[in-house]
Amino acid sequence: MNKKILVLGGNGFVGRHAVTHLNSVGAKVTIGTRNPKRNKGSTTQAKYRLEDLTHRSDRESAALEYDVILNCVGILRQRVGETYDAIHHLAPQAIAKACSSTNTRYVHVSALGLSVEAKSRFLTSKFTGEKAIMNSGCDWVIVRPSLLDGEGGYGAGWLRGIAKSPIFIVPNSAKGRIAALTVEDAGAALTKLCISSAVDLDLVNARVFELGGEESHSFEEYIRGIRKRYSSSKSLCVTIPGWLARIGAHICDLLHFSPFSLGHWELLCKDNVPINNKLPTLLGRAPTKVVS
Q1: Residues 195, 201, 204: CA angle, nearest 5 degrees
Q2: Model pLDDT for residues 78-119, shown as the tens digit of each residue
Q3: Separation CA 266–CA 16 (nearest Å)
Q4: Structure pTM?
């Protein structure tokens, strides 16, 4: 029997690629979204506001109806009614607890580089959410991708725009390395995690899957590598003090301008590379190169 899978955030950057791959393997997919669109083909859409799934009745009905719940929802900045704690911690915790009594697998898309010592609530709320899921007792899987590249992504679009510019800025604190992967590969990996058995995935030994490309680059190398897709001319890298970039991140957060945030400033300061990269195993091949 084909698995019934609810993809929360299924119209988003990561979610829609997961939906495409899930449909290709015959899964019965429902897109959970705050703004349902007209159903297309075999994919239905249902209204789910993740913050509302903190209520007992909503989360239990969702867990009972599906074999797998894949959560691709995340917010870069808080809005009225959408707090970091609700979206990244309380709702995922509630869904995971509901799944624990219904034999429903819960696949949660998180991120690399989370730490309790982080200053950004964007990062600390995700870290707290992960810990709550791990303690829920359900059949959980946590996915931590590195930087995602692809068409239609808010952050990916900005980075491509920077790469096309003849001049770009890099903080001197951006010492970390990036193991970028394509969002198409991420969608394929998430599909494998949703449809495969616990035995095939060896969930007895590991439930956290870190994903990334097979090569890592500094931020400057990454931007220069992306630029090669669009231009054969060289670009000028201007280095600025890390403290200035941090002030800029706070201003961007305050004005809700660009995807650059305090959380991303923190991530640039340390490696964003998988310790044990599970992407090649899940794909059954080498990941697609992002930087040539």
Answers
A1: 125
A2: 988 889 999 999 999 999 999 998 889 999 999 999 998 999
A3: 28
A4: 0.94
Identity of the amino acid at 256:
H
- The residue among 221, 156, 207, 206 whose CA lies nearest residue 182 is 156
Task: Please list, residue by residue across 42-57, b when 16 or more beta carbons sit within 10 angstroms of its beta carbon and e when fewer do.
Answer: ebebeebbbbebbeee
DSSP category for residue 86: I
Structure tokens at 131: 């810990």
CA distance 29 to 5: 5
The CB density around residue 270, as the number of other CB atoms within 10 Å, is 15
**Distance from the Cα of residue 171 to its chain's centroid:** 24
Per-residue CA distances from 24 to 29, 141, 200 (Å): 11, 22, 20
CATH number of 4-148+182-212+273-283: 3.40.50.720
Closest CA to 114 of 275, 240, 280, 279: 275
The closest of 14, 274, 264, 277 to 150, measured between CA atoms, is: 14
d(CA 215, CA 129): 29
In 3-state terms, what secondary structure has residue 209? strand
Which 8-state DSSP code applies to residue 214?
Answer: S
